[in-house]
Write a structure and sequence with these properties.
Length: 333
């Protein structure tokens, strides 16, 4: 990375550092064809440490050599994570790997998955979620987007000539205050405390999330076969600062509608939200598919649902037809 992109990356890093809270812990990994760590392990975001980190970033974040993305991420993985904290990696790059054991994007993604995934029972968790900030117009955004999506996060574009600072303010504010981690939703019989998911067919847009951040929201939409019990509800499981948290939500609380939505339009409204969330899920799965057959499968699912519900998506388009101008319809005033 060089030129305006490296300047934006440096300014963005400094902005992020200055927004850290005293309860946060952080480290900096600089990478090109070699790696440099600010500290050997995470350190507290005290005023002194942040000021030293800002000075370090101002002097050390400069254009140097090529880009070894794989080694950089593996170095982050080998740095001791803090178990009782939300571990977040913010990856500032142009997404153009040019050195290292491999520069193949698919091989890099596979190596990162192997290093970052932790399997607990039937669940897959991440040692850290990886957000990517992609700088410039020539970045490989598809690669960075797939890398972040399959590691619990997403990628953002930072364009040259646009104020990175303003974009960073909004971005960092979104994830500066993690309330809950390991958030999952399930449908329960609240009388017997048994999971209905295992008894009837349940389809949800998405039911597991690495983090819930303050000021954000989680929308889960689903459909299921008719059930015999009235006492069903949603059970939210998560980890908070005080330990494991279970929040039961009875179905009676789910019956209220947003203002302006009538009962007549209720089914169509919820169904379209479900379709919208499903299409987004299929598009993500298409991007991160590991082989061509899976990519085609998810693309087909997304396309068919987009056409069924008349949604404009990256796979569909909107055609506007305009009436021909009729001069005879003009009137003198």
């Amino acid at each position: 990375m060089y030129g305006p992109k490296i300047n934006q990356a440096r300014d963005s890093l400094i902005d992020i550092l200055r927004k850290l809270r005293p309860i946060d812990a952080f480290n900096i990994v600089l990478f090109d064809d070699s790696l440099t760590l600010f500290r050997e392990s995470f350190i507290a975001a005290t005023i002194l440490n942040v000021n030293m980190a800002v000075e370090y970033a101002a002097s050390k974040v400069v254009a140097r050599g090529s880009t070894n993305l794989l080694k950089a991420i593996n170095m982050v993985d080998s740095t001791s994570m803090i178990d009782d904290r939300g571990n977040i990696v913010i990856f500032l790059t142009d997404g153009l790997p040019s050195s290292g054991a491999t520069t193949n994007p698919n091989e890099i993604r596979a190596n990162i998955r192997n290093a970052n995934y932790v399997t607990t029972g039937s669940k897959r968790e991440y040692k850290a979620v990886i957000y990517s900030l992609a700088f410039g117009f020539d970045m490989d955004f598809g690669f960075l987007s797939a890398l972040s999506e399959e590691n619990g996060a997403n990628a953002r574009r930072i364009f040259e000539g646009v104020s990175a600072k303003n974009q960073l303010v909004y971005f960092y504010d979104e994830l500066s205050d993690p309330y809950l981690s390991r958030v999952s939703f399930s449908i329960f019989n609240l009388d017997t405390r048994t999971e209905i998911n295992k008894q009837v067919k349940v389809v949800t847009s998405r039911s597991e999330f690495p983090y819930f951040f303050g000021g954000s929201e989680i929308v889960m939409v689903g459909k299921m076969n008719a059930i015999s019990t009235e006492s069903w509800g949603i059970c939210v499981n998560a980890v908070s600062s005080t330990g494991n948290t279970i929040i039961p939500i009875p179905s009676s609380l789910l019956d209220s509608l947003p203002s302006g939505i009538s009962n007549e339009g209720r089914v169509d409204f919820i169904e379209r939200i479900f379709a919208y969330k499903q299409i987004k899920y299929y598009l993500i799965m298409m991007d991160i598919a590991r082989d061509e057959s899976d990519a085609v499968k998810f693309k087909t699912l997304a396309l068919n649902m987009s056409l069924e519900y008349n949604f404009v998506t990256p796979l569909t388009s909107m055609v506007v037809t305009q009436r021909l101008h009729d001069p005879s319809a003009e009137m003198d005033v």
